[in-house]
């Protein structure tokens, strides 16, 4: 049911995201006006030193809110550059074996 309520998880563009951690996988999923970042910790330990980065996407430049739609409630912001890239070095940990799904929402939207 969760996948049905978020079409970006089933359809559209799939981009692998850099994390600099071998046990942390992430991807960016976009479909129409929905953009999600899926982060999966495959380690038996919490991961606190990592980044979430992508060089180029179809995102428009500007500030975006990173809001949790699945997993622990985490909120932060990113700035997307002119080619749709961004680099986030979060100040929050990803718990062991946890999957977190964030929605990227333009800061101009409420």
Features:
110 residues, 6-stranded antiparallel β-sheet, 1 helix, 45% strand
Average predicted confidence as pLDDT: 92
In helices, the fraction of residues equals under 10%
Give start-end ranges of low-pLDDT stretches. Answer: none
Topology, number of strands? 8
Order of helices and strands: HEEEEEEEE
Terminal CA distance reads 25 Å
Can you put this structure into words, describing what you see?
By secondary structure, the chain is mainly beta. Helix content is 4%, strand content 45%. The strands form 2 sheets. The chain has a 6-stranded antiparallel beta sheet with strand order 1-2-3-8-5-6, with no helix packed on it. A hairpin with a 6-residue loop joins strand 1 and strand 2. 21% of the residues are buried.
Strands, helices and their partners?
Blueprint: H1 2-5, E1 13-17, E2 24-31, E3 34-41, E4 52-54, E5 62-70, E6 75-80, E7 86-88, E8 99-106
How would you sum up this structure in a few lines?
The protein is mainly beta. It has one helix at 2-5; strands at 13-17, 24-31, 34-41, 52-54, 62-70, 75-80, 86-88, 99-106. The strands form 2 sheets. It has a 6-stranded antiparallel β-sheet with strand order 1-2-3-8-5-6, with no helix packed on it. A two-stranded antiparallel sheet has the order 4-7.
């Amino acid at each position: 049911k969760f996948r049905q309520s978020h079409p970006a998880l089933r359809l559209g563009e799939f981009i692998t995201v850099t994390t600099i951690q071998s046990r942390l996988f992430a991807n960016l999923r976009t479909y129409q006006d929905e953009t999600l970042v899926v982060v999966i910790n495959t380690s038996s330990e919490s991961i606190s030193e990592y980044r979430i980065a992508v060089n180029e996407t179809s995102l428009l430049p500007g500030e975006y809110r990173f809001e949790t739609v699945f997993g622990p409630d985490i909120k932060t912001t990113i700035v997307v550059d002119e080619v749709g890239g961004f680099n986030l070095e979060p100040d929050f940990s990803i718990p062991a074996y946890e999957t977190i799904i964030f929605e990227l929402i333009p800061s101009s939207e409420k």
